[in-house]
Each structure stands twice: as C-alpha cells, then as structure tokens.
Amino acid sequence: MSEQRPDGLRIRDLRVTFDGFTAVGGVDLDVAPGDIRFLIGPNGAGKTTLVDAVTGLVRATGSVRFGDTELLGRDVHRIARLGVGRTFQTAAVFEELSVLQNLDIAAGAGRSWWSLARRRRRTPDEVAEALETIGLADRPDQLAGTLAHGQKQWLEIGMLLVQNARLLLLDEPVAGMSHDERDATGALLETVSRDRTVVVIEHDMDFLRRFARTVTVLHAGRVLSEGSVAQVQADPRVQEVYLGVDSGTEA
Ligand SMILES: Nc1ncnc2c1ncn2[C@@H]1O[C@H](COP(=O)(O)OP(=O)(O)OP(=O)(O)O)[C@@H](O)[C@H]1O
Ligand SMILES: [Mg+2]
C-alpha cells in the first residue's frame, strides 16, 4: 500500500462566469484530508462547473489550494500532475483496449519518456494494486468496452489511482448503476479515502446517506448548507430546494 498522507482542499471565493452568467458565485469550501465529501444540489447548481474550475477546465477567480499548492491559474495537465484527478458524468475509458492496457496508459501519462522506456514487462506494482482495489484483478485482459457499466466507472477510478491522484473528484459515479454496483462503489470510496481525499457529486440520496462523511449543498452557484448528512437533511433551506425533487425519502 502507498503511505502518503492525504492533503485537504481549500476553496475561497470561487467564481466562474459564462458570458455574464454566474455559474459559481463565490464559493468557500474546505474538505479535510481523507474526507468523503458529497456535493449535492439541483440541476444547474454549479457542481460540475466547480469541479471544472478546480481541475483547470474552466477559468475561475478566487483561490483553490490543494495542500500548500494554489491550483487556480495552472493548466489542466499540471493540476493532474499535482495529484488532482476527476471523472466525468460519462465514463471515459478506452473501450477497445483491455483493463490492464487502460491502467498502463494512465500510469504512463504522468511519467517522463525515459521512465517509460525503462519499464519492465511485468505489471507495475501500482497497476497491480489498483486492479485489486477496483475489484478487477480477475479480468486484466478483458476489453474495457465489454465491462459492465459499474466496472467501467471503477476502471476510471483505477486510472486516477495509478496516476497518483490524491484528490479524487467524481462526477455522479453511481448514475445508472445497479444496487450491488452502488454498494461496491461505496466500499471502493471508503478504501480509496484511507490515504486520499474524495469529493463526490451525486444525486442519489440513498447512496449519500450511506457513504457521505460530510455534505455540501450547492444552489444557484452558492453554498446553501453544509455539515453532516443529518444536519443537511434537517436544514429547512435544503428541504425547500429539494421539495418535489426528493420528497418522501427522508432518513
Ligand atoms: N460552458 C458553459 N457555457 C455556458 N453555461 C454553462 C457552461 N457550463 C455550465 N453552464 C451553466 O452553468 C450552470 C451550472 O452548470 P453545472 O453543469 O455546473 O451544473 P450541475 O450542478 O453540475 O448540474 P447537473 O446536476 O445537471 O449536472 C448551468 O446553468 C449551466 O447551464
Ligand atoms: Mg453536473
């Protein structure tokens, strides 16, 4: 196992505008090292845009620090090399390549040409470890395109692990998953958070109740509420925003 200490995420006055429209309007957010923070909020609340800003995909103002490092103003690749990894709302694996090849490519992405050239033919330790962690150790040679929906998401998470991502930002990882796949994904998040910090955007309230350690609710580009699952669920402002969306599913 790796022995890294997780870093935390510290966001201050984050703002993103698109042609005058404010998608993220001054967000402060602290995620402690090793947390599993769920980021929820109605459609269009700015959840994905916030992750885009943290990972350098959209321009933003304010401050985003991961550990001691300011991320804002750096390009996407630099931010990834600093240990910040994200998944997208739709899984992005190389379907025509095997599970192992996908992980190998991801592992190589952060390496210099000479370290790639020096590589031995055996499976590198971090790749073998990731295969184990994501539950695909029994099928390294299966084509990624033939994996079940949930397994593709796990492979994508595995690709972040071999890139040494220490902050994982996952955009709706359990959307479309079966109940069993959700359980397995929750267990995976718990394993991964032992030495990493995890932020999960999710709409699934049942999944949130089971696996969130802390929750932030975004609404119209701002933080509406924050705390434990129980605190956020008891917040009348949250109930108002979700009324009609998630009614009748209180804990
Ligand atoms: N590239 C863009 N150009 C213009 N507007 C955008 C762009 N990206 C997002 N937006 C707008 O910003 C707002 C926030 O979008 P965002 O995708 O961050 O919401 P979200 O909380 O992830 O929603 P969902 O739950 O539907 O995924 C929305 O009104 C969206 O239409
Ligand atoms: Mg989104």
Automatic annotation (TrEMBL):
Keyword Nucleotide-binding: yes
Limits of the ABC transporter domain: 9-245
Entry GO MF terms: ATP binding
Domain of life: Bacteria
Keyword entries, A-Z: ATP-binding, Nucleotide-binding, Transport
SUPFAM superfamilies linked: P-loop containing nucleoside triphosphate hydrolases
NCBIfam families, per database record: urea_trans_UrtD (TIGR03411)
Name of protein: Urea ABC transporter ATP-binding protein UrtD
Source species: Micromonospora fluostatini
